[in-house]
Amino acid sequence: GPTRKMPLTASAMDFFQLFVPDNVLKNMVVQTNMYAKKYQERFGSDDAWIDVTLTEMKAFLGYMISTSIHHCESVLSIWSSGFYSNKSIALIMTQSRFEKILKYFHIVAFRSSQTTHGLYKIQPFLDSLQNGFDSAFRPSQAQVLHEPLIDEDPVFIATCTERELRKRKKRKFSLWVRQCSSTGFICQIYVHLKEGSGADGLDALKNKPQLHSMVAKSLCQNASGKNYIIFTGPSITSLNLFEEFEKQGIYCCGLLSARKSDCTGLPPSMLNNPETPPSRGQYRIRMKGNMSLICWYNKGHFRFLTNAYSPVQQG
Fold first, then answer.
1. Are 224 and 232 in contact (CB under 8 A)?
2. Nearest-CA neighbor of 233 among 219, 253, 248?
3. Fewer CB within 10 A of the terminal residue: the chain, N end or C end?
4. Is the pTM of this model over 0.85?
5. What is the secondary structure of 118-175 as a DSSP string?
6. Which pLDDT score is estimated for 168?
7. Domain extents for the chain?
8. Residue 35: which H helix or E strand, with range?
9. From the centroid of its chain, how far is CA 87?
């Protein structure tokens, strides 16, 4: 559960700032104003622009977040007279001011000479979120690794041409999380870029088991020695990965698929379906040390690999 007790008077903003404190927001203000200044030096002055303030930055992010809570085709719908309009929050900032901040908004305005990572523009924000995840909450023992669904970004949809919209749908990243099974709290995030060469680029994508193993290790880098039980889907489950995690004091339970999983080291007899389907409820077990491979039949074959649970324990 939570590591600190919030007062009964705490607002939604107080909880938000457990993860995005004022120093991160102030940095956004500085970087946005810095970018606006450099942009105007290069392309000409913008008489309608005045430096953004901390209060405006909070309101700007509030508008962005509102599109996730109240689904609409564009954040600009807030100021419209249509179905998605929201007069109560439209009064906080004008649409023209919002669009100006959107034009210049930056978390990191300029790349340093030492920067090589593709996420450099948002890395301080990701780091702040991760620090908040680590300090604000103690997760339960059972956790899950997965790739959550991400809705299409609604901010620019209304102003996109059809061609730009098609290009946007080819998302250039994937987001993975380690999440507490009891509460849904996200403990760790990992953003994978799908472009570029190297260990985490397109070359790695061609080898899916290698990629998913790398994702799992990144998500569990702070989980060593804490006796966690990590649940995984077929794309991550593998004998080699589970054995490596066990040495670090991390235990696993994962669904297996002959098509999606890395089945290296597992007995083929347990992965092949018999010609005559077994009766419902029948199961087979193979064990190696603490590791168990279980094949159970319901309306189809259901296989999973685990070193966290005894395969013969009742209940």
1. no
2. 253
3. C
4. no
5. TTTTTHHHHHHHHHHHHHHB---SEEEEE----PPP-SSGGG--HHHHHHHTS-SEEE
6. 57
7. 12-112, 170-306
8. helix 22-43
9. 32
